[in-house]
Amino acid sequence: MAALNAIGLDIKKSKNLSDKLNVLLANYSVFYQNTRGYHWNIRGEKFFELHLKFEELYNDLHLKIDEVAERILTLGHTPDHNFSSYQKSSIIRESTQVSDGNKAVKNILDSLTSIITLQREILSLSGDAGDEGTNALMSDYIRAQEKLVWMYSSYLRK
What we know:
By secondary structure, the protein is an all-alpha fold. The protein has helices at about 10-40, 45-75, 85-90, 100-130, 130-155. It has one domain (about 10-155): Ferritin.
């Protein structure tokens, strides 16, 4: 019989899942900071529209960062919390100053693609571990982010 953690999940599978969630946490953290930069630095004819959309997005990312870190803790492990670790494990790279709306939206779409792909991997791991809590979290995130991909893609197609 496998050794179980405090919420009844296999300890080894929970560790593997927590490691992957820390990679997600890193990606969310870099994505969050990039999006704040887009919000602060956006210029041009669509300023008001994009300024608000980017603020909505980074507020949502802020909540997700907290939820992912708390899920790692719930699994019995420690979330990474320093930006140097995030930069090492994140697929998403820091953006340089971006003031062009279309470029910012393109970067957001690229980031969402990376995040969704990673969350699908976590969904598979959580399913294998019988971890309904992480599974539900990833499913909710993916569903909402797929809609964002459609909306931001529509914006670029005009």
